[in-house]
Amino acid sequence: MGTKKENMSGTSGAIYGLGFVGAAFYYISMATSFWMGVLGFIKAIVWPVFLVYELLAFLEA
């Protein structure tokens, strides 16, 4: 017997990828030093966390 697996993350992965590239470009271009660029790259990886946090804070008020 085989199992059926579905991969339904294509669109969300593409949106996250585009958001990552845009955020990385923004944060790194605003960096004033090498380590600020590294911090910007890390921020670009976790940008959805900031988005969800701010959205929930906005909806709570």
Describe this structure in words.
The protein is mainly α and 61 residues long. The chain has a domain of 28 residues. The termini are far apart. The relative contact order is 0.11. The mean pLDDT is 84.
Features:
0% strand; mainly alpha; 75% helix; single chain
Hey, roughly how much beta strand do the residues contain?
under 5%
Low-pLDDT segments, ≥5 res? none
**Number of helical elements:** 3
Task: Give the SSE order as H and E letters.
Answer: HHH
- Please bin the fraction of helical residues: over 70%
What does the secondary structure layout of this molecule look like, with pairings?
Blueprint: H1 10-29, H2 34-45, H3 47-60
Helix pairs in contact: 1-2
In short, what is this structure?
The chain is built from 3 helices and no strands. With 61 residues, the protein is mostly helical.
